[in-house]
Design goal:
- The chain has helices spanning 2-14, 19-33, 41-52, 56-65, 67-84, 95-99, 103-141, 144-153.
- The protein is mainly alpha-helical.
- Helix 5 (67-84) crosses helix 7 (103-141).
- It is elongated, with a radius of gyration of 20 Å.
- The two termini are 29 Å apart.
Length: 154
């Protein structure tokens, strides 16, 4: 019983560890980890890894590694999204001022800011995934264990 469980765990840990697939996994984990919506990146990475047959521990590790950047990038993504949409510069309201508005106005403002941030993230995400994957693949090919895994999979 334990031998089959151990074998399943080893297969799960080794899934998608060819240099190219591992580079893609790490790139997706980093980019999704910077999504300007708090609280959804772990689930999103997990679902994407399952759907694409990527290495689950690797994508989650990359996701967690960039979590501080996720918080730091929210405001730049909001500004970039506003610039992309060419919306008039919105006055930055203080948190206290936002709390004294009506609930409808509060959620409308927050929704607009979230839309801008998500649009900017989407525009940035695709080229960044390609760039990270392209940069990491040659480095990961130099790791002998990954090369053996790739030749065993072929």
């Amino acid at each position: 019983m334990f031998a089959s469980l151990e074998r399943k765990i080893r297969l799960w840990l080794c899934q998608g560890v060819s240099p190219r697939r591992l580079a893609l996994t790490l790139a997706l984990g980093c980019v999704i980890g910077c999504l300007p919506v708090l609280g959804v990146t772990t689930v999103l990475c997990g679902v994407l890894a399952l759907a694409l047959g990527l290495n689950q521990p690797a994508i989650q590790a990359a996701n967690y590694a960039v979590m501080p950047a996720q918080i730091l990038l929210i405001f730049p993504f909001v500004r970039l999204g506003g610039w992309i949409l060419s919306s008039a510069p919105q006055k930055t309201a203080s948190a206290a001022a936002l709390l004294h508005t009506s609930p409808l106005e509060f959620f409308t403002r927050m929704g607009t800011l979230a839309e801008q941030a998500l649009l900017a993230w989407l525009v940035v995400a695709i080229p960044v995934v390609a760039l990270i994957t392209f940069a990491l693949t040659p480095m990961l090919r130099r790791i002998p264990a990954l090369t053996r895994t790739q030749s065993a999979a072929d």
